[in-house]
């Protein structure tokens, strides 16, 4: 029977996986969660790589969606300001 992964069997495995996805160093993760060594966490990343990559991809997609929303919100504000400016110019040119 293969040995059990210490990280997989850790009670805070979800938090460890989140830290890995967030890019926290393996040494810092090992110190924070008091259990698996940095080397054990490294081995863990290799056998759960597909799941971790999916988490990283999802994080990237969520970030891209937030950035797009912020950019388009800013563009809407700029477009509205430009439209109002053009109205003011039109009124000024008409002598109002």
Structure description:
- The protein is mostly helical and 96 residues long.
- The chain has a domain of 47 residues.
- Helix content is 76%, strand content 0%.
- The longest helix has 45 residues.
- The radius of gyration is 25 Å and the shape is rod-shaped.
- The termini are far apart.
- The mean pLDDT is 79.
Alpha-carbon Rg, integer? 25 Å
CA(first)-CA(last) distance: 88 Å
Number of helices: 4
Q: Which class do the helix and strand fractions yield?
A: mainly alpha
What's the shape?
rod-shaped
Strand content: under 5%
- Biggest sheet architecture: none
Elements, N to C (H/E): HHHH
Instruction: Give the % helix.
Output: over 70%
Write the layout of secondary structure elements.
Layout: H1 13-22, H2 26-33, H3 38-47, H4 49-93
Helix pairs in contact: 1-4, 2-3
Task: Please provide a brief summary of the model.
This protein is mostly helical. The chain has helices at residues 13-22, 26-33, 38-47, 49-93.
List keywords for this structure.
mainly alpha
């Amino acid at each position: 029977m293969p040995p059990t992964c210490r990280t997989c069997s850790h009670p805070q495995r979800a938090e460890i996986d989140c830290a890995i996805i967030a890019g926290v160093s393996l040494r810092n993760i090992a110190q924070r969660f008091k259990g698996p060594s940095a080397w054990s966490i490294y081995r863990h990343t290799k056998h759960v790589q597909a799941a971790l990559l999916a988490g990283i991809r999802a994080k990237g997609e969520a970030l891209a969606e937030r950035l797009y929303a912020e950019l388009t919100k800013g563009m809407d504000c700029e477009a509205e300001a430009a439209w109002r400016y053009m109205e003011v110019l039109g009124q000024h040119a008409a002598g109002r």
